Amino acid sequence: MVHPEIHLTTREKVQFLWLIPLILCKTVLTVISTVLAEPRAALKHPVRTIGVNLLRHAVLTLSFRQKLAADVASTGDAVRAFCAARNLAHSAVAVPVDAGGHLHPAAAAAAPRRRLHDRASTFHAAQIPDATLHLITIPSASSASSASSASASSPPSPPPPPGHGRGRTILYLHGGGFAHPTNARGQLPFAARCAEALCSSSSSSSPSSSSSSSSSPPAPVTLAVLEYHLAPAHAQPTQLAQSLAALRTLVAMMMAVDGDGGGGSGGDAAAAAERIVLLGDSAGGNLVMGVVAALREASSASASASAASAGGGAAGGGTASWGGGGAAADELRAEWWGDMRGSTGSGGGRLAAAVAVCPWVGLGPYEGESYERNARWDFLSKAELEEFEEAAGMRRGVGWGDMLGAARAAKAAREEGECEGEEEDVEETGGWGEEFWSGVVRGEGRVVERMLVTVGTREVLYDDVVEFVGLMGTGTVEGGGGDDGKVVFVKGPREVHVGPVVDVAMGVEDAEGSLQAILEFFKGL
């Protein structure tokens, strides 16, 4: 069982006997209503119309406990089934979340030696367990065609390590409100399509390998799927700490591979980071933003420490809202990232890109107009968001999980401080506004080269995502991205929450949908 702590009562089990027929009846009525109201749009993709309404009524009708109990396959089970069905090479490695900095044995020689603070004690939480990282090799088109000519019954070759042949890696952080595992029908095929698009990119190999023969096939892309521990048994920031540890593990493993290829004791951490793309949907998008925020904080702290050292002063602390204040606030940093940035000098050690599909970026109260306007379309609801928030132990106003809440609080405190002339107090509230989020992708302290954010025009999170993208300083929210192209914002017409994932699950190909824009973004990296 995925959630052994959930034990349904006899009454809850018996309820399925009438709830399932009720869901089907509601779906039929809603589909008919939708076709009558919007015949052209509804009949353009009838499978989507039926599937979204079925999903919506299932989510709205079943209780939170019943939905958790319905999770019978873990993320690991889903990955193994997905790879077996597609004959893909797959392996799994442990991701230690350890204050001592212990890494995967293959990467130990390349790992930074200083103490790494990402154990849960620094997050004011219970001890965080280690996670599992599933590594799936997505072959290039030429390699895939060659493999298809072989016997389908033959098992795939053992997968090469991440970064083999200077190939790139996607770290996929799945959604599900931090409470549900990933699935092999929608999320994993979606992530695999993104990896295939990246593999088909003309720059699938690292830019540093451009001197190699143009006739050589592109290196395979590694799809790294993090199996993090789920709520309610494991509250946030367990999932964020495990995500940061997974990124650290990938960087170290790729450093080890690069070092072996070059005959040295270890590769370049910056070169490894520049071949990694973050990908997340929904709550996974929240993790993507939490990771880049942590890296941005680490970069800022490292720069402040360097400046203070050069000037003979003391390094400044981080934003108080990162950990809700307290003595551990300064420890809430990915110190390994700051060390790496410090050792590479300016211009090095930045992730290739970060992609957040319909990210959950703001906690309650859920009062935006889109929560009311799109309630009739979306399968996600205010009630379910509150249930996820409570189950995961999310903290409102804390920057690593409630990005919008922290930004709003910082803005209010800044305005109040300006009125009262208390600038020092304003600085202590944290800078979670436009300057911080724009700095994630711009300036010397940036931690990622490009970002893609998507949202469906018919999802309840629409207003929150639009507001959050505004914090990044984009020139427009009508698609296409900002003035400098650093942030691409795509709005999927008539799409509900995680619309591209839903489309993949249902086999829908919509030329006007956000899925195509996402794939084009990956092809352009």
UniProtKB/TrEMBL annotation:
The Alpha/beta hydrolase fold-3 domain, residue ranges: 219-389
GO molecular function: hydrolase activity
InterPro entries: AB_hydrolase_3, AB_hydrolase_fold, GDXG_lipolytic_enzyme
Coiled coil: none
Annotated signal sequence range: none
Keyword Transmembrane helix: yes
TM regions (residue ranges): 16-37
Region described as Disordered: spans on this chain: 146-176
Highest taxon above the source species: Eukaryota
Keyword set, alphabetical order: Hydrolase, Membrane, Transmembrane, Transmembrane helix
Name of one Pfam family that matches: Abhydrolase_3
Protein name as catalogued: Alpha beta hydrolase fold protein
